[in-house]
Amino acid sequence: MAVQTSAIAANLERVSEKVARAAERAGRSTDQVTIVAVSKTFPAETIRAAHDAGLRHFGENRIQEFEAKQATQLGFADAVWHFIGHLQSNKAHRAVHLFDRIDSIDSIGLAHKVDAAAAQERKRQPVLIEVKLSGEETKSGVCESELRTLAETICRLPHTELHGLMTIPPYSEDPQGARAHFRKLRELRDGLRRELGLELPFLSMGMSHDFDVAIEEGATEIRIGTALFGERLGARNR
Ligand SMILES: *Cc1c(COP(=O)(O)O)cnc(C)c1O
Fold it and tell me: In this predicted structure, what is the pLDDT of residue 232?
């Protein structure tokens, strides 16, 4: 095994053990939790090493950055690519072309752009709605009060499939600080299920420092960067 692959494999083992313990505490099974490896800022060779280590879901947050990596032929037949960053409407088409799922739909306008792009690409585009649960101006995501209308809108779009919800809670040193936000996202999902009769099987929540708490609150996907790949260069939220 190449050095990078064995380092990632060791990290993956640590993360997987923590996933297993959290799932056990919550009376859930580990196969209800998927690790999305957040490979943003890392080169294509790191993604290849992660794939060799057994990871299959990958999250990227910049269209252009991912286009450059794809150009180096990351053509795994079995990888699932998630777009997890803020998506500008004018990049909707490129996102639909490149990604298996767009996890960050946060406006009706964007949903329509994605649907039009999916129609052109002759695909049905799976998406998640990103919900903003804190008042922070800097965070993207739809407000709780606008969630239902956005969900209803997406359900009427012919080329877009709503698969669930995603959130990024405000950063807190103590992982327990995010618990109320994770619980809230699950309750919002349950509410939409009841009111709109949607299935919404996926809840994408929890990152390197708080994914165990997210699993206890029902996460089906955790987005893990640092705990698999080490620190990224540059700002924390990149
Ligand atoms: C960067 C990023 C992550 C990964 O964060 P880590 O703390 O490194 O695990 C998860 N989700 C989103 C949306 C991100 O942008």
Answer: 93
